[in-house]
Amino acid sequence: MKRKDITPTDKELIMREHDFIVSKTDLTGRITYGNEIFIEFSGYEEYELLGSQHNIVRHPDMPRVVFKLLWDYLAQDKEIFAYVKNMSRDGSFYWVFTHVAPIVDKNKQKIGYTSVRRMPNPKAIPIVSDVYKTMLNAEKQAGAKNAMEASGAILGKLLEDKGVSYEGLINVLQSL
């Protein structure tokens, strides 16, 4: 499924407080399952989602280094929480607070990933949005070759200035 023809809009979809978006992927990030709420917010039909890379809902306002961090955690068999701005098929967007974790089989072998997304703390979104804009600008200014390093430096400095770990920052933001 190609997404180059989708133009982001200013239309925001707000997750409902008691909704959970659930999806599962294989080890390469291809969608193997999506619940009805995922289908609703993504704007795609189930058959269009299944087998597609999960980045089908990636919004261009998301810094690439956020997904690098996510994959780094998963490579270490660690779960991760993050704020993510997703894009629907019609170009609208929706913010989620996501929890991504490895799925293991009965032999404790990693076979995929599960992502459960819920409504983010609305007080955190302006803060996260500003940080992501700064990170994205750093990525653009650095160019493709050095984008990850530049964006990662912004995040690293923020964590250092606040004196918190990534996990600590996420917990503070979600509890504002």
Strand and helix order: EEHHHEEEHH
Quaternary form: single chain
Task: State the domain count.
Answer: 1
Alpha-carbon Rg, integer: 16 Å
What ranges have pLDDT less than 50 throughout 5 or more consecutive residues?
Answer: none
Q: What is the strand tally?
A: 5
N-to-C terminal Cα separation, in Å?
A: 37 Å
CATH superfamily: PAS domain
The helix content, as a percent range, equals: 25-40%
Descriptive report:
With 176 residues, this protein is an alpha+beta fold. It is 40% helix and 22% strand. The protein has a 5-stranded antiparallel sheet with strand order 2-1-5-4-3. Strand 1 (21-25) and strand 2 (31-34) form a beta hairpin. Helix 3 (64-75) packs across helix 4 (125-162).
Task: Detail the topology: elements first, then pairings.
Layout: E1 21-25, E2 31-34, H1 36-42, H2 46-49, H3 64-75, E3 80-87, E4 93-104, E5 110-118, H4 125-162, H5 166-174
Antiparallel strand pairs: 1-2, 1-5, 3-4, 4-5
Helix pairs in contact: 3-4
Keywords:
176 residues; alpha+beta; Beta-Lactamase; five-stranded antiparallel beta sheet; globular
Offer a quick outline of the entry.
This protein is α+β, with helices and mostly antiparallel strands. The protein has helices at residues 36-42, 46-49, 64-75, 125-162, 166-174, and strands at 21-25, 31-34, 80-87, 93-104, 110-118. A five-stranded antiparallel β-sheet has the order 2-1-5-4-3.
